[in-house]
Every structure is written in structure tokens, then in C-alpha cells.
Specification:
Layout (H helix, E strand, L loop, with lengths): L6 H4 L77 H5 L6 E2 L2 E2 L2
Antiparallel strand pairs: 1-2
Length: 106
């Protein structure tokens, strides 16, 4: 069974080239969808990278702003009782696919 190599184990590998083990710099980048969101069945983002930066997909976040409305599309009144289920992010998105170039990696 294959397993991932931890950072502490990288130096033990017989590599001919040096391996950088530390994060030198980090930043957050805010990326807007490349198409319309309202009424869309897919939301796409394009994250450009020229290959010299590491994108930490495990710490990637999607910030959403949404409005809860009545079943008929009308606005809620002050006395209306509403709630959301646990894991609202998981109910907003059915599938998340990540492509690197033309290759699906998720």
C-alpha cells in the first residue's frame, strides 16, 4: 500500500537535487468566478500559476454570500422561522472538481 512521504522523511530519500522543505512566503489570493453565478449550474474559477508557487488545496476556502428566500421566491418576514441544516457548504455544492491544466486531479 502506497503512502505519502512526510516532510521529515524527505531528507532521508536518496535525491540528487536539493529539496526545499520550508515555506518561504505565503499569501491569500481572492479569485472571483469567471462566469455568472446567479442561476448557474456550475461555478468556475481560474487560478493562474506560472509554476513557481505552491497552491495548498487542503487550505483553499470558498467564501459564499447567499440569501434565504421563501419557496415561492419571496422575501422572508421578520417573524418567519427558518434554519439551515448542518454542513451548509456541503449542501450548496454537489461536486467540486479540480483541474490542473487539462488533467482532472480530484
Amino acid at each position: 500500500m502506497a503512502r505519502e512521504c512526510g516532510l521529515s522523511e524527505i531528507m532521508e530519500l536518496p535525491l540528487d537535487t536539493p529539496v526545499q522543505r520550508q515555506v518561504v512566503d505565503s499569501n491569500y489570493e481572492y479569485v472571483r468566478p469567471i462566469g455568472p453565478v446567479v442561476g448557474a449550474t456550475e461555478v468556475e474559477f481560474l487560478i493562474k500559476n506560472n509554476g513557481d508557487k505552491f497552491i495548498d488545496l487542503a487550505n483553499t476556502e470558498v467564501v459564499t454570500i447567499f440569501r434565504v428566500k421563501k419557496g415561492n421566491g419571496g422575501n422572508l418576514a421578520a417573524g418567519d422561522k427558518v434554519s439551515v441544516i448542518n454542513g451548509i457548504g456541503a449542501t450548496l455544492f454537489d461536486t467540486v472538481d479540480c483541474w490542473l491544466g487539462n488533467e482532472l486531479v480530484t
